[in-house]
Write a structure and sequence with these properties.
338 residues, alpha+beta, Heat Shock Protein 90, 2 domains, five-stranded mixed beta sheet, two-stranded antiparallel ribbon, 10 helices, 10% strand, Histidine kinase, transmembrane helix, membrane, transmembrane, kinase
């Protein structure tokens, strides 16, 4: 998991801004003919020490360090406490410098206090704006992480959506073959076993090679042919050079299933499905011969589309005319099995 970035203010910012404030506070002294070098140094020292204290005091009063909830309003009791604390610290610094350096002439204490309140307000507001920005970024990161987790969970559910009706129909077909003592019953059982073995092996994978997907499809089509006989036909015209590309497991199976679900499949009107490549897309095409009263919910195609969006942020394309229905799925060339 991504490590949460801790809120912090660079020491360069704290010391750099404190030195800058100390220099700015001393500028008027440079133009005062009665000011001495000692006055300038003492004035700068008080401002520097006060600024550093105010920085660290306000930083450690933030909710990050006190476990208190953030106030919606920038101006609250914490600001009042900070101002009062600043006034007290400024009084202590002024008295300490007077006693330590035995200064006979200094600016009026009120001037130091006003300067301290101004510095306090500037630091407080700047720091809280930084902290609010930090919290906004953390919320965005957490939201993105939560969305990623939810998408992952949804994707796992999508991968489990192998139609249970297919198993039911396959077992019914097998029963019929056994009843009439069809010699191909044993082959049917082997293909059914292969298909569900592939299902178990591939269910935890995000992507498999197109070659493996076509092997799964071969078993699936064999089972359907046993059920529909010559009323169903799948033609593979995919360029073998594309076999090393990748595809989400059972994408082709779901698309074939979608064709059967919505179209008439019979000896009188055979359903012919063609697979081929077109640019960077793999195309599944069938002639439209809709069942009476068939209503499309779009769940199957939406399933596949969500899987591609989750994995490569690309959508499938649907090309429908009066006579043909095409679904184009993006080819994935750069991938790693995991």
């Amino acid at each position: 998991m991504e490590k949460v970035k801790r809120f912090q203010v660079s020491s360069r910012v704290i010391w750099g801004s404190s030195v800058a404030l100390a220099i700015l506070a001393s500028i008027p002294k440079l133009f005062d003919a009665f000011s001495t070098a000692s006055d300038i140094v003492i004035n700068s020292s008080i401002t520097l020490m006060f600024s550093i204290f105010i920085w660290y005091y306000n930083i450690y009063s933030l909710p990050k360090f006190t476990a208190q909830r953030t106030h919606k309003s920038l101006f609250n009791w914490k600001l009042l406490l900070s101002v009062l604390m600043g006034i007290l610290v400024m009084v202590i610094l002024v008295i300490a410098h007077q006693e330590l350096f035995q200064v006979s002439k200094m600016d009026a204490p009120i001037m130091f206090e006003l300067r301290g309140v101004l510095i306090n307000l500037i630091v407080y507001m700047f720091l809280h704006l930084l902290f609010q920005n930090y919290q906004t970024q953390q919320i965005a990161v957490e939201l993105e992480r939560t969305q990623a987790v939810n998408l992952g969970a949804q994707y796992e559910l999508l991968k489990q959506q192998v139609n249970p009706h297919f198993l039911f129909n396959s077992l019914n077909t097998l029963k019929s073959m056994v009843d009439i003592q069809d010699p191909q019953s044993s082959d049917f059982i082997l293909k059914l076993s292969d298909f569900y073995r592939f299902t178990l092996e591939s269910r935890k994978m995000d992507l498999i090679s197109l070659r493996e997907e076509l092997q799964i499809l071969d078993s699936y089509v064999y089972l359907l042919k046993a059920r529909f006989e010559d009323g169903f036909e799948v033609t593979n015209e995919i360029d073998p050079k594309q076999y090393d590309s990748a595809i989400p497991p059972f994408s082709l199976q779901l698309l074939i299933e979608n064709c059967i679900k919505h179209n008439v499949v019979s000896l009188d009107k055979p359903l012919k499905i063609k697979l081929y490549t077109e640019g960077d897309f793999l195309v599944i095409e069938n002639r439209i011969q809709l069942k009476r009263g068939a209503l499309s919910t779009g769940v199957g195609l939406d399933n596949i589309n969500q899987r591609f969006m989750h994995l490569i942020h690309k959508e499938i394309e649907i090309d429908k005319t009066e006579t043909t229905f095409k679904v184009k799925i993006p080819m994935i060339y750069d991938y790693r099995n995991n």
